[in-house]
Amino acid sequence: MKEPQHSSASLVLRVGILGTAAIARRSILPALLSLPDHYRVVGIASRSMDAASALVNEVENAPNHGTGPSQIKPHGSYASLLVDPSVDAVYVPLPNGLHYEWVSRALRAGKHVLCEKSLGCTLQETEDMVALAEANDLALVENFQFRFHHQLQVLREWTGLGGHVASGGTDSSKEGSAEVAKSKQGDGLESVSVHEQDETSKNVIGDLRAVRCSFGFPPFPDRDNIRYQKELGGGALLDAGAYMMKIAALLMGDAIQVEAASLVKDEEYGVDVHGGGCLVDPGTGVTAHIAFGFDHYYQCGVEVWGSKGRVRTNRLFTAKANVQPVFEIETAEGGREERVLQADDHFVNMLRHFHSVCVSHQPEKRAEENRQNRLQARLLEDFRAMAERIEGA
Ligand SMILES: NC(=O)c1ccc[n+]([C@@H]2O[C@H](COP(=O)([O-])OP(=O)(O)OC[C@H]3O[C@@H](n4cnc5c(N)ncnc54)[C@H](OP(=O)(O)O)[C@@H]3O)[C@@H](O)[C@H]2O)c1
Domain containing 219 — which CATH number? Predict the structure, then answer.
């Protein structure tokens, strides 16, 4: 299949959106509109023409949309948007259970695809979608925007892993030496603002020994939320649990394996609502201890524990653009201190990255995304199988 015809001089990608999802409205559309040199939103599709038109209207009246005649076409079906030759790339924020159908159809129609997590509901679905993207030489990126927040690079530096995590869109101006402002707090905890990457803080924890992650939130008030619908690919594993697999792989590498797993099902909904387990790197014995769900007191925590210290974060997956993440560091030599990092917009960074995967003609970028797509799907599949095995034992 042919490469989509971008508006080539400026390489502005013409993007269409499948579904009027909350995440599209709240986060992705504003980020797309903030990048006029990279993207032009040309279509929004919904199962309902009224809903598509309403969102087009909302976007065109947004403060950062600019002026001029309407350029976004509403579509009353997803199929209608996919046959539009003026669309180069699509963003798919549909329920997980519909990703396979619509990502496959988009790739067959010659569009690059940015798909929300979880890309597939099974390993086979993801394998098929990746094979289709490869056969058609198209970009297929599963959206975990936290990969592109500056704080992940800092965490990797401080845990001795190196700062580069296939996050091509991250502003290179953030690299370099640190400007660190310190202030003593009453409780003896030292608070430090890190404005640039702190070279002096590299590998503060010694050798990596273990990772602990928790991501969970209270039940959703609406019973018809997509996360409670079995037939739409609901459940906590493909939702909050997916972040656990991703961060474990980003911190511990491709060799990790699922060692123990538990998934607890809600009998009324028929989907898993919480779970936990352990992943291990068989080469080093380093473990990741994970817990996730949506029947919980809110937690978004990642702790990296090493031979000489530990780093704990409080917003690794969910830092809003105006939030300065706080890292708590404890070492045998330095005691305890808090570091306040730069705010960053991971949605914007992620979209810069997706743009470069689509237009840069660097095959290694697409290959890296497909490697990550497959690894993530393999971990999710192994986790579910292990949970079923342990439950049935
Ligand atoms: N990256 C992140 O931070 C993040 C955050 C939240 C969610 N997500 C992911 O984004 C996706 C959407 O999540 P969301 O919370 O935004 O969902 P949502 O608000 O419920 O939106 C899902 C959209 O899918 C369309 N849809 C098609 N068939 C549907 C059906 N049978 N039932 C319900 N909706 C249907 C609807 O659009 P139309 O009616 O207009 O066709 C709906 O607006 C999921 O894959 C989720 O995991 C990612």
Answer: 3.30.360.10
